[in-house]
Design goal:
Rossmann fold, alpha/beta
């Protein structure tokens, strides 16, 4: 067996560490050689002596790569591979054969093979072929996911993987996310729109052992109801009018990573049933196929709706709620995050001014007070839009931040009332803390202490 250099070995170890490979060859000696070559590098290596056994193994679990002999008793590997593709099989395949003719190579590629290796071959040749196959698959999926994210992302929004802030409320969320990061249990993130649910999910993904794998964010409310199962699970060629070619679903494309399903309450009953099956079985069946695809995914769900209320109204399955709501993390509204509003405002000011090519606007004391006093019903999204609007105008339109008080029947927390009134007093006297303290009937030290705590 040929040796592999230290650099190549390190690269192979990193790339193949999570890979599962299926060897299909009728010759016991060749199967044994391939299994012994691959097993030190791969997480799992399966073997089959014929197409029938290979079909059984493919139905039982997901394989990243299949090494397929073309000449086997009963039928050619190329013909069986073409049928697998018709049935919805998406496993990347390396065809091996002893016959080096151009026609066979063309047939193999048409059947869906991603590489072609001639017998006899050395161990480093097959390892490099597997490596190339994995690299191409990873690039294809990464390109697909990045293209989708670019099409759906909030353009210019940076640091979406960092949970910014030092408030007690966000520190508690961060601690919980880190605690559950490396377990496979589904997580439900709740909170009002714009409170940072996707950022929290990305933070958890990057703190987990899946950090090097894909993060797939799907807003269930933006996919048409009649297309969501096709988008998530994939489809075979001809599965429905317009399906000219087979397509891998979003879920299989994120193998090994984390899937974030936002606004899960928007799923229709059919999609809810399908999602429940996925969570129970760990498999998806692309539309128009007979083959289930085994998944290795971490699911994170999010909603701004009250799912218990949705269940009571008959719009959400109770058994699905029980299945996805194992660990619930509530994102605090921005008004409960103390001085995080200033930290976030400064971050947005830096990022957006660079994107727009506009000079930053100074966040002075009176502006800080106004930002802290505002309740931010639109949460972080509202704050970001306010900062962008301010950059365009060249000043802070503080008059648009209407002062809000608790409505009839509502009780506002005492610390919020205190903060609002102290900041209102400072605003009224132009930031003069001594005068503000005199009018409030407290000492100057009290005002200084409160301002320090609020970051003013």
């Amino acid at each position: 067996m040929a040796t592999i250099g230290e650099t190549d070995t390190a690269e192979l170890t990193a790339l193949l560490a999570r890979a599962s490979v299926l060897v299909v060859d009728d010759e016991p000696g060749m199967r044994n050689f391939l299994v012994k070559t691959l097993r030190p590098y791969c997480t799992f290596v399966g073997e089959a002596e014929d197409a029938a056994r290979a079909s059984d193994l493919l139905a039982q679990r997901h394989f990243d790569v299949m090494i397929l002999d073309n000449v086997m008793p009963g039928r050619k590997g190329i013909d069986w591979l073409a049928e697998e593709r018709e049935r919805g099989g998406f496993t990347d395949t390396i065809m091996v054969t002893a016959y080096a003719d151009l026609e066979t190579a063309i047939e193999a590629m048409r059947a869906g093979a991603c590489d072609f290796v001639l017998k006899p071959f050395r161990s480093n040749q097959i390892l490099n072929a597997v490596r190339r196959c994995l690299q191409i698959a990873a690039l294809r999926r990464e390109n697909s996911l990045l293209l989708r994210e670019l099409q759906s992302a909030d353009i210019g929004l940076k640091r979406r993987d960092k949970l910014i802030g030092a408030s007690a409320a966000i520190a508690a969320v961060r601690d919980t996310l880190d605690r559950v990061g490396n377990v496979a249990t589904p997580v439900m993130i709740t909170g009002a729109s714009g409170s940072g649910k996707e950022v929290a999910a990305r933070h958890m993904h990057l703190s987990s052992s899946r950090a090097a794998m894909p993060f797939l964010a799907i807003n269930c409310a933006t996919i048409p109801a009649d297309m969501i199962e096709t988008e998530l699970f994939g489809h075979a060629s001809g599965a429905f009018p317009g399906a000219v070619t087979a397509r891998e679903g979003l879920l299989p494309s994120a193998q090994g990573g984390t899937v974030f399903l936002d606004e899960v309450a928007a799923l229709n009953p059919s999609a809810q049933s399908a999602l429940l099956r996925v969570l129970d079985d760990g498999q998806v069946r692309p539309l128009g196929t007979e083959r289930s695809v085994q998944l290795d995914l971490r699911f994170v769900f999010a909603t701004s709706a009250d799912l218990a209320d949705e269940v009571a109204k008959g719009r959400f399955r109770e058994d699905l709620l029980f299945r996805i709501n194992v660990v619930e993390i509530a994102m605090p509204p921005l008004r409960h995050r103390e001085t995080d509003v200033i930290v976030l405002a400064e971050m947005f000011m830096t990022d957006i001014s660079a994107r727009l090519g506009l000079p930053p606007v100074q966040i002075d004391t009176s502006t800080r007070a106004a930002l802290l006093r505002h309740d931010w019903p639109g949460n972080i999204r509202e704050l970001r839009n306010f900062i962008e609007r301010s950059l365009i105008f060249g000043y802070f339109p503080l008059e648009t931040l209407a002062r809000q008080t608790a409505g009839p029947g509502q009780i506002e927390p005492l610390d919020q009332v205190e903060r609002r009134e102290v900041l209102r007093a400072l605003d009224a006297v132009g930031g003069n803390r001594s005068e503000a303290a005199r009018r409030l009937g407290v000492s100057r030290k009290t005002v200084d202490r409160k301002c320090a705590a609020w970051g003013v």
